[in-house]
Specification:
This protein has about 250 residues and is an alpha/beta fold. It has ten helices and nine strands. Helix 1 packs parallel to helix 3. The two termini are about 30 Å apart.
């Protein structure tokens, strides 16, 4: 199934006619490609197929970001680095010419607050720290967490802000994050409606306001790969690719 998806993408007339090429981004900074440690790739074979797909889209570098959650995905830097080496070796053995690094996607909970204060956290680029919050309940301390992270020398990145429905009627919240120095990272699949029409609408609004600072695939599995092909048909893709994004610095 995946190979047919990849073949379809590679021969896409939309890509050829519209000059769709994610190589202008250079790097993807949000994915789940290390096998067996979160809800992303399950096996090394899954990892290889997803990496091949992303390479086919034009990415030169991948920064994979396994989940870190106190009560669910209890990944440590040691677990993540060991998994990264497994993927790197497999890429080398299969002659797939993609650079890959690892950071993490930290879930803001009580356990994260302790980690932030007491442990070195996994970052990418110039100490960018990828964080997510609950999809259901609005966090009451998120501004304080971002501020504390900055004091400690991190550069906060909020993962997929378009996926948090409790902020949909409060666009000023996104503006406040942006103005305090938080990088807002959009999921590419949101532009194709993968997470629903509301997330797509907010994604477009965020692009219109010019406050998106990073793009990620948030690649977990082949369903994400299949959906990502539909993004080439979205007019907002061209618009976001013309904006300054940290992907190109990585």
């Amino acid at each position: 199934m995946f190979k047919s998806i990849f073949k379809k993408f590679s021969s896409s007339p939309v890509k050829e006619e519209e000059g769709f090429d994610l190589s202008t981004l250079h790097a993807d900074m949000h994915s789940h490609l290390i096998p067996g440690i979160d809800d992303g790739a399950k096996t090394i074979e899954d990892s290889l197929e997803l990496v091949r797909f992303l390479h086919g889209m034009g990415y030169k570098k991948l920064i994979t970001t396994p989940h870190v959650m106190s009560d669910y995905f209890r990944n440590t830097p040691e677990i993540i680095h060991e998994g990264l080496q497994t993927v790197r070796q497999a890429l080398q053995d299969n002659q797939i010419p993609v650079e890959i690094e690892a950071a993490a996607e930290y879930y803001i909970d009580d356990g994260f607050i302790r980690k932030l204060e007491e442990e070195p956290l996994l970052t990418f680029g110039d100490k960018y720290l990828l964080m997510e919050v609950s999809y259901i309940n609005p966090p009451d301390n998120v501004h304080e967490v971002f501020f504390r992270a900055m004091v400690l020398g991190y550069k906060p990145v909020l993962a997929h802000p378009e996926r948090y429905p409790y902020w949909y009627r409060d666009m000023d919240q996104y503006r406040r994050f942006y103005e305090m120095g938080v990088t807002l990272q959009l999921n590419l699949n949101s532009l194709a409606g993968y997470y629903g029409p509301d997330a797509k609408k907010i994604a477009e609004k965020l692009i219109d306001t010019g406050i998106i600072g990073a793009l990620g695939t948030d690649m977990h599995h082949t369903r994400h790969a299949a959906a990502l092909q539909k993004v080439v048909q979205e007019k907002y893709l061209k618009k976001i690719l013309e904006m300054p994004l940290i992907n190109r610095e990585l």
